[in-house]
From TrEMBL:
GO terms for cellular component: membrane. This is Zinc metalloprotease. It is a multi-pass membrane protein. Pfam families: PDZ_6, Peptidase_M50. Residues 137-185 form the PDZ domain. CDD domains: S2P-M50_PDZ_RseP-like. The chain crosses the membrane at residues 7-29, 104-129, 279-301, 331-349. It comes from Brytella acorum. It is found in: Membrane. Residues 11-341 form the Peptidase M50 domain. Belongs to the peptidase M50B family. Keywords: Hydrolase, Membrane, Metal-binding, Metalloprotease, Protease, Transmembrane, Transmembrane helix, Zinc.
Length: 366
């Protein structure tokens, strides 16, 4: 019960803070571009508490802590607004009346704040605890050692597919027991390619398939705390690296080089939130930075209903000199909603599968 409470509390606090930062980007950009903000809500559903600031924005803390939103004044536009909404519009303060550049700035500010927040969080980690370094070792007579890999070598590719970290390496090797793979390793600044015959170990469950083993071990070695300036520069670099690795991972899934079962959702995030909370403040900050990068990237995907979808519409509007037709936008939003809903359901299925729910249900059904 203690672990469950810690997981729930950590998840709500971490997600709540990241959503707050994202929506604060929209809020401040709207204020900068002269748009009144009607509502700033953390969470969805019924408001647990609410108050108004001197600019007329209603701030809410809502019951369902799975996101949040900012509602700019006149966001719905003349074609979608009711007569009551139109009557309440304040001339010069509505979102839809602003030039396309101003509207794009308001939308893109949310993801940009997530990237900026990630930089600050990484910099804080590096200032407090330094930047961890990974040291790799190989098991004597293991598959990697037999292939010619040495201690200190870092595996960068398996069969040409990029390897992001030790967990990713294990994930790629696990289903390849007894198979021959081509390893690319970095040794003293040079890339070396070598063939390796993946070893095998018994599966976790009785009768399950053997698990591939390479015989590579990694240990995180704490770095030295950095100065504020150096940590900030390292934070920028780390944010860029995580962004590129995340996009590469998404592309590998879309191109079929990685399994879509790697997609995780809210349950996995909650589970990981509880796990990192065990290891202290720096681990929580590092995890938040990773999530902040992912939140920024996801929102920039050109999918209608996400920020990236709206930016795509605004780009087409700037090129054509007029907005897309209402029908085209409606179709786009419906397709975007269906895609996001499908991804949510699929990722939730993956999360429940990884927790072993369906394996547990199988012998208890029928």
């Amino acid at each position: 019960m203690h672990d469950l409470i810690r997981t729930i509390v950590a998840y709500v606090l971490i997600l709540g803070l990241l959503v707050f930062v994202h929506e604060m980007g929209h809020f401040l950009a709207a204020r900068w571009r002269g748009v009144k903000v009607d509502v700033f809500s953390i969470g969805f559903g019924p408001a647990l508490c609410r108050w108004h600031d001197r600019w007329g924005t209603e701030w809410r803390l809502s019951a369902i802590p799975l996101g949040g939103y900012v509602k700019p004044h006149g966001f719905e536009g003349p074609d979608d607004a009711t007569d009551e909404q139109k009557a309440a519009w304040i001339p010069g303060k509505t979102f839809h009346d602003k030039p396309v550049l101003s509207r794009a700035i308001v939308i893109v500010a949310g993801p940009l704040f997530n990237f900026g927040f990630a930089i600050l969080l990484f910099a804080l980690c590096f200032t407090l605890a330094g930047k961890p370094e990974m040291r790799y070792d190989v098991e004597p007579d293991g598959a990697a050692a037999l292939a010619g890999m040495k201690a200190g070598d870092v595996v960068t590719h398996v069969d040409g597919l990029g390897v992001f970290n030790i967990a990713d390496l294990q994930h790629q090797i696990a289903p390849r027991a007894g198979q021959k793979v081509m390893l690319t390793v970095m040794r003293d600044g040079h890339e070396i390619t070598m063939p390796a015959m993946v070893g095998s170990a018994p599966g976790a469950a009785p009768g399950s398939a053997p698990v591939g083993r390479l015989g590579v071990m990694a240990m995180a070695v704490p770095g030295k705390p950095m100065s504020v300036g150096s940590a900030f520069v390292a934070g920028i670099h780390e944010t860029w690296t995580v962004s590129i690795e995340t996009l590469q991972g998404v592309w590998q899934i879309l191109s079929g080089h990685r399994s879509a079962r790697e997609l995780g959702g809210t349950i996995r995030i909650a589970q990981m939130s509880g796990q990192v909370a065990k290891y202290g403040f720096v681990s929580i900050i590092s995890f938040m930075a990773l999530l902040s990068v992912n939140l920024g990237l996801i929102n920039l995907f050109p999918i209608p209903i996400l920020d990236g979808g709206r930016l795509t519409f605004y780009t087409l509007e700037a090129i054509k000199g007029r907005p897309l037709s209402r029908r085209a936008q409606e179709i786009g939003y419906q397709a975007g909603f269906a895609l996001i809903a499908g991804l949510f359901l699929f990722s939730t299925f993956n999360d429940l599968s990884n927790l072993g729910l369906f394996r547990w249900l199988a012998p208890h059904s029928g």
